[in-house]
Structures
1.
Amino acid sequence: MASETLLARISDYANRPDPYPLYAELREAGPVVRQADGSCLIGTYHEIAALLHDPRMSAEPRSRTDSSSEEARRPPFLRLDDPEHHRLRTLTMRPFGPPHTPGKVDGMRGEITRITDELVEALRDREQIDVVDDFAYPLPITVICRLMGVPREDEALFQGWTEAIVASADIGPEEDTTERDKAGLQGRQEMGRYLVDLAEQRRGRPTGDMLSDFVNEPDPALRLTVEELAETTILLFIAGHETTVNLITNGVLTLMRRPDELDRLRREPDLMPRVVEELLRYEPPVHMRERVPLSDIDVAGITIPQGTSVVLALASGSRDPKRFHEPDRFDPARPDNEHFGFGSGIHLCYGAPLARIEAETALGALLPHLAAARLVQDPPPYRQNAMLRGPRHLAVHL
C-alpha cells in the first residue's frame, strides 16, 4: 500500500524539504509503480530516458479532447506533440541562436551581469537578506522582461500572474483544485492579453526584441496565430524565470550547507559551470513531468495501458545509483553528468542556455558575500509546488 501512495506522499508538503528518501523507495519498488489513483510512477534513470525519447509517449494533457476545458484547447507547445510542437519550438528557438551561433540570449550576457551587479549592490549594507525575494526572483524576471521587450515600469505585473499559473500546473493526486485552476486560468488570460497587445504594437515596426520578432516573422509557415502568440509568450515567461529562481536558490542553499565547496569555488571560480551542472542533477528545479502513452506500452516487462497518466520522477532518475556513482553526494567534479535537470528528448528545455548563464552569473556574484554568512532557517520554507521544487524564502544573515 505504501508504494501505491508514493505520489501522494511525494506531493505532501511535509516531504518538500527532502523528497529524496521517497525517491529511493520508489526506485526500490520497481521501474513501474502503480498508484492508487490509476497513474504510474517511474523513477529509474534508464526507463525515464527511454520514455522521454519514445514517440509513443505524448506530452499533451489528457483533457485536450474535452471541449469544456479552455486550457485543454490551447496548450503551450511544451504540452504538444510533433508536428505542432516542432513548428512552434522552431520559431521560439530562433532568438536563442542556431547551434554554435550567438543569438539574443548570448548577447544578453553583459546585460545579465549588469542586472546582477545592481541587485548585489542593493544588498551591500544589509545584515539579512531573503535570497528569493531580494535576488533570485528579480534577476530572471528582469532578464526575460528585457528579452521580450516589456517596459521596465510593467515588470512588477508578472509576479502574481506567474505564481498563479505555476501553482495550477502542479502534479499530484486527484483533489479539489477548482480555486487553484481558476486563479491559474485568470493569470494566464491576463498575461496573454497584455503580451499580445504589446506585441501587436510592434507589428510592422520591428524593435529587436522577441515579441517584435514573433509578430514580424517573414516565413508564413512559422507565423503564430493570436492564440499561439499568447500561449507561447506565457510559456517563455514561466520557463524563463520560475525554474531559474529555483536553480539559483537551491544552489545557494546547497553551497552554504557545504562550506568546503563554497570556499573551493571562491578560490577556483572557473569551476562554476561544473557546479551548476551538478546542481541541476543534485537539486534540480524540475522534479516531475507527466506523459500519456498513445498506445499500450511495455516498460521493463510491465504493460502500461494507453491513456494512463505516467509521472516521470526526473529528480529520482538523476539520483539513480545504477547510473551515477554515489548519487547522493554533491560532486562538481562528477564525470559524464548527463542529468535530467533540463529533461531530455524533443522537449529538452529550450531555455537551458539562458538558465546556465543566469545561474553562473548569479552564484558567482553572490560568492564574496557568503564567506561569513549563515542560514537563518534550515530547512527553509518551501513552495507548495512539488513539480517545480524550491524554497519560497531563503533567509541569510550576512
2.
Amino acid sequence: MHRITVGDYTVEALTDGLCRIPIPFFPGLDPAEHPEVLDPDGTVHVPIGAFLVRGQGRTILVDTGFGPRETGFPHGVTPAAGDPTPPMGEGGDLLAALAKAGTAPEDVDTVFVTHLHSDHMGWLAPESTPAFARVGLEAVHTAGSIEAIHGEAVPLAPGVTARHAPGHTPGHYVLDVEADDERLILLGDVIHAPVQLRDDRIHFIADHDPTEAARTRRRWLDEAERTSAVIAPAHFPGLEFLRLGPGRTPVAVQGFTSQTR
C-alpha cells in the first residue's frame, strides 16, 4: 500500500477488504456517461480503507474497516455478476495490514472513527470482543475511555486535528495533518469515488443529508485544490495519496513525500 510523510508523521494507507457497490447506490451516476467506474461484474469496486498515523510518540488508527465478515446484496438490488455470486462487502484484512506495517493492535494508542457506519467501525469489537486493547464501544465506555467529539475543530495530537465535515452523517469528521508547511487531509466519506471529483450531480445513497454532503464535498475539494493539500479518501481505488490539479484532476503524489511499500 501507500504511505506518506508529513513533517514528523508517517501516514500509511491500509485496507480491510472490498465493497462491490451497485450503480443505484450512486444517485445521479449515469454509467453510459461514466463507463470507467464499472468493474466487469457490473458494480463499482471500492476498497474499505483505513489509515495509520505515526509520529510525535503517537500511533493513531483512523477507522477500523468492515471487520472479519461479509454481507450480501440487499433484496431487490441486482448483485455483482459471478458464479457463485460474490458478496457485496467483505472485510477482515485490517489486522494483517497493520502487521505488515509493523504495528500490533496493542501499539495503537488512539482509534479515531470518522463516523459510525459499519465499514468504518467493524474492528472495534467484532463478535463483542475488542480488537484493540483500548477499544470496543461498550468496553471502553465502561472503562471511561471513549470520547465523543464536538465542535468544528478538535485537536488529537500536535498538528493533527479532527474537523467537522457533516452531510454523510451529522457527526462526520475528517482528519487534518499539518507539519512543516505540508498538509494531508484524510477525507473519510466526504467523497466515495473519483467520478464525484468533477461531477457534482453524483451523490451516495448513504448520505444522511445529500445537499449538505454535496456542500461539504465542494468545500473540502475546493480547499484542497486551493492549498495544494494532499487528500486521501477512504474508498478511492488503490488508496493513493492525491493532489488535485486543474479541474480537480487527481494526481498521485510522487517524490519526496510518497512511497509504495
3.
Amino acid sequence: MPLDTADWTICASTRNRLGESILWHPLEQSLYWIDFYGPTVHRQRRGSGVVETWKLDFAETMGSLVLADEGLLVAVDHGLHLLDTDTGKTRFFADPKNGQTNLVYNDGKVDRAGRYWIGTYDVSERDPNAVFFRKAPDGDWVVADKGFVICNGPAFSPDNRKLYFSDTVAHRILSYDLDEQGSISGRRVFFTFANSDGMPDGLAVDSAGNVWCALYGGSKVVCIEPKGTLRRSLYLPANFVTSLCFAGPDLKTLCVTTGWESSTTEATKAQGVGGAVFRRSVEIAGLPEPILAL
C-alpha cells in the first residue's frame, strides 16, 4: 500500500541539490534555508512565492546558517562568515577548527540562552574525526564533544536543559544534560533507528518537548516523545529528507528541506520533487528560533 503523503504541499519553487538548515525568522516572518552545494542562501517572506537567493562564490559547500542580530551567520566549508542580507556582503567571523582540511562545517544552531553550537564532518565520511564546538561568552571556542563521523542536529529542549544531537552514521540521536554555563554531560542514546529508516539529520523540538527528526534516505520525518518513544511518522514524496523547522505566526507549520536523487539531472529535475521545500500543518506548535547576539 502506498504511503499517504497528500498533506504536504511544496512552498518554494527551488529545487536544491541538497536543501538544508531551514529556519523561520520570528521577527522578519521569513523562511530561510540553504543549498549545501550551491552554496546558496534562500529566503521566502511570509505570504510571498518569491524566493530571494544569495550565492557565496568563495566556498564550495555550506553546512548551515543561524539567525544573528547582524544578519546571518553561515558555516561554509572552511569557516564561519556573517552575511548581510541588505547588502549581500560577507565578512569572516571565525574558524574554530583552525584550518583543518579533513573537517568541514556542517549543522549549527543557537540554544535558548543564545549560545552558538556548530558541528563538523570528516571529509572522507568514514573516520570519527568530527568535532562539535560551542562558542563561549568570552569568544573562545570549546570542544563540546568529538569522535563522530558526521555531526548533525543539534536541538534543545524547551527549558534548555537538554541538548539533542544526530550521530548520523551511527543511526542514532544522542541526548546530553545542558547546564546554565553551556557545558554538556551525561551523553546517552535517546533513540536508535533501523538502517531502513534512513539516517538522522536535522532536528527540531516543539513546545511540548517532542523531538522531530528528518531522516535522510528515509522519505520521512519522525516525532519522538521526550521519554524516547516514537510518537508518529510523516512520510514525504522525496527520499532525501534533511532539515525541518516550525514556521508561521503560530509556529504550527512544519517546513522540511529535501535533496535530489543521485541520478537527477537538469533534464529530469522538473519531473520529480526531490530538492523541494515542503510544508504541512501540525497540531503542536514549535518554539521561536533564537537569534544570536554578536
4.
Amino acid sequence: MHREQQERAEYFHQLHTGPAPLMLPNAWDVASARVIENAGAQAIATTSAGMAWSLGYPDGEQMPVQELLAACARICRATAAPVSVDIERGYGRDAQDTGNVVDALIQLGVVGINIEDGTDPATQRLAHPSVLCARIACARTVARQHDLRFFINARIDTYCTKDVNAAARLEETRTRALAYIDAGADGIFVPGLADLDEIATLARSLPVPLNIYAGYPGAPAALALGELGVRRISLGCGTMQATLAHLADITSEAIADGRYDTMGKAMLTVAEANGLFTTAGTHHDRDTSAAVTHAIGLNSLQ
C-alpha cells in the first residue's frame, strides 16, 4: 500500500469532522472530476447514475463492472484529491463479488465507496439489511488486508421506496444504520430524507457522520444542514442532470434561433480546458491495467 494513498484515506476521514459539512458535487468522468477539483472541492465522489449515462447505460448496475473500473482508473490518474466511488448495491451476486470490486478499486487508488441496500431485483422491494451488512463486512475485510482506512458510506433507501410506511421510516432508517455501522460502515447516507426535524433526530442518534442528498431544487442550504448535525452533503447525479439540461438549452437556442448567447455566457477557454489535464497521469500511481483486467476476469460480477 502506497503511503500517499494512506494519507489520502486519512484526509478523507478528517474532511467529515471539519467545522462545515463536506460538500461533494459528484463527478461522472475525468473532465467533470477535474472541473470539480479545480473549483475547490477537497475530494471527488462519483455519481453512479451520471457515470452510467455518460457511458450509454441506464442507472441501476446496468453498466458493466469493467467499464466502471476503467472510468475510475482514469479519474484516479487525473486527480490528486481523495476519490470515493459509488458502487450502487455492490455489483455481483454476493458479498465476495463486492469484495473483489473493492479490492480492484483500492488497487486503483480509491479511498472510499458509497454502497446501498436498495431494491432486491427478485422482489422489487427494499432489500433485507442482512444483504448490505454482509457486503459491508466483506469490503471492510478487504480494506484491512490492504492496511487502508477505507471509508464505507452506507446508503439507506427507506425514503426512496413505498415499502416502508411514512410513520416508520425514521426508526427503520435508524435501525438499519446501526446495523450497517456494526458491520463496518463509517458513514450513513439517506437520500430522500428532507424533513429538518427528522434529519436532526437521525444525526443525533448516529455515532458516525450523516450524509444528506441535496441534488434537487430547493434542497436545504449547507449552513442549515450543518447546524442540524449533517457532516456530508452529496449533489449526486444532480450535477450531470443540470449539465445535460444546460447543453439542451444551448442546442435548442442554436437550432431554433441561430444564436449562441447561452453557450457564450460562461465558457472555459481552450487553454483553460487543456490546463485541467496538464498533470494527468501523475496521480494515484497504480498498475491500473492489472486491477481492471483482474475485475474483468471475475465472471460472477456480470
